[in-house]
Amino acid sequence: MKTILFILSIMLSSLCISNTHAQTECTEANIIVPETYVYNTKNPKDFKLTLTNIKNTKLMIFDRFGNRLFECNIDANYMKEHIDEAGNKTRTYTTGWDGIYKEEPLAAGMYSYFVEGNCLEGNRIKKSGMFRLFNMTASWNSSKP
Asked: What is the predicted pLDDT for the residue at 111?
C-alpha cells in the first residue's frame, strides 16, 4: 500500500505563500459499492460504483453459487469525474449493471461483487463483498389488492 502526499501552495494577492499538505492512502475505502440495489421497471437505475483516485477498474457480479452474472471494464470514457477540495478525483461511471441476467430480472437476494483497479500511483487494489438485491417488479405489476 502506498501513501500519496499532496502539497498545495496558494499565492495570495499580498505575495505571501501558504502551503498545506494531506496524505492519502489508496485502500479499499477508495472503492464505494452500494449495499443494496433495487430493481424496478418504473424507475430503472443502474448498480454503480464510486471510485476515488482509482482508474482502469473491472467490476464483476456473482450469484450465491459463484456464477458470474455481469462483468465490465470501466475506463475514463464512462466516468463522470469530480475533484474535491483535497484534490481527490472521485469518479462515478455513467453505465452500470441493470439487474438483468440473460434478459430476465434477477430474483431478490444476496449477490457478491469483485472490483479491482489501479490506484493513481500505480499499485493494484481489490475489493469484494456482498450486496442485497430487491426486485420490485412483482409489486409494481400487481394490480390486485
From this structure: 95
Domain range enclosing 104: 26-141
Specify the range with the lowest mean pLDDT, choosing from 15-29, 41-55, 89-103.
Answer: 15-29
Number of domains in the chain: 1
> 36: Cβ–Cβ under 8 A, 6 or more apart, which residues?
131, 132, 133, 134
CA distances from 15 to 6, 11, 18, 55, 139 (A): 22, 6, 10, 37, 64
pLDDT at 141 over 50: no
Q: Is residue 39 part of a domain?
A: yes
- Look at residue 41 and tell me if it is in a domain: yes
Q: What is the CATH number of the domain that holds 48?
A: 2.60.40
Given a cut of 80, is residue 142 above it in pLDDT? no
